[in-house]
Specification:
alpha+beta; Jelly Rolls; Arc Repressor Mutant, subunit A; 2 domains; 3-stranded antiparallel sheet
Length: 293
């Protein structure tokens, strides 16, 4: 890695944002991106608009370079790392919880492809996007509820507008188990499932509890959710718990056993197994790596 990337002001610090520990929160950002020394993950779809310069991402299954004027969407639940960027890079965007994402009117194959690891990229942006992202960030941080809601509503409509413009999915090969078009009612059901899980992921919940809260049969809930997201209900619950645990482990003097229990895992062994599967290392090793940065 070039020496310039190792300057303190250029490195992303674990725990510097709340996105990992608040998986059901929507966050709008506008800043100069920081180089990541290792991948991270969070339980939101991420939207990046490159306003100036360029950035390079190592995604779970592909690399991608984004130039000024590009906008991209990707599923943050898969480990990803911004490992390079130009010195003048500026970007804006949003971390979008699934409860919002699955209520959007997007091309039918896009949500499914993103959940399986594809990145949507469009260059159909203009000066209005530069102005709007700044304003949405300002409104979102204002503390004024009507302004905040106005910013969120406008931003969601802007994301939906991608269906009217040219875009590409990276990688571009079709998905082997292609998704049939979901009607809006089914997408709304997935949104309600996400809403319930987001509110209760730290509790002891199972598929029957989730389905009952939404008013559908457990088998239908499991099939619909997996067909739409590529995850089982239990995998999504685990992802939220792991995202929450990741943020806890970044705190100084974090105790792995305490974090496991606070994050909704019934045992340390279950926590270790789930964490290692996603992060590629044990929670203890992750805590050590985070503590030395």
């Amino acid at each position: 890695m070039a020496e310039s990337k190792l300057r303190d002001q250029s490195i992303w610090l674990p725990g510097a944002s709340t996105v990992e520990g608040a998986p059901n929160s929507l966050e709008i950002f506008h800043n100069s991106p920081k180089v990541m020394l290792s991948p991270h993950w969070h339980a939101q779809v991420e939207v990046n608009f490159i306003m100036r310069g360029w950035v390079h991402y190592k995604m779970a299954a592909h690399d991608i370079t984004l130039e000024a004027g590009d906008m991209c969407f990707f599923w943050g639940g898969l480990p990803h790392q911004m490992d390079d960027r130009s010195e003048d890079a500026v970007y804006a965007g949003v971390h979008l919880p699934l409860v919002h994402f699955f209520r959007l009117h997007l091309p039918a194959d896009v949500p499914h492809r993103l959940m399986l690891g594809a990145t949507l990229v469009t260059s159909a942006t203009d000066e209005a996007d530069h102005l709007d992202f700044r304003r949405w960030r300002e409104y979102w941080r204002s503390g004024d509820a009507p302004r905040t809601q106005h910013a969120v509503d406008e931003l969601l409509l802007r994301i939906e507008r991608v269906r009217f413009a040219p875009y590409r999915l990276v990688p571009d090969e079709g998905c082997a188990d292609s998704l049939a078009s979901l009607d809006q009612q089914s997408s709304g059901t997935v949104g309600r499932i996400c809403d319930f899980i987001n509110a209760h992921f730290l509790d002891d919940i199972e598929s029957v509890d989730i389905a009952a809260a939404v008013g559908i049969h457990p088998k239908y809930a499991m099939n619909l959710f997996r067909r739409t997201t590529g995850m089982t209900l239990s995998e999504y619950v685990n992802l939220l718990r792991l995202s929450y645990a990741q943020a806890k482990l970044m705190k100084e003097h974090a105790n792995v056993i305490d974090v496991a229990m606070e994050s909704g895992f019934g045992s340390l062994s279950a926590f270790n197994k789930s964490f290692r599967k996603l992060a590629g290392m044990s929670p203890s090793d992750f805590r050590k790596v985070s503590a030395v940065r």
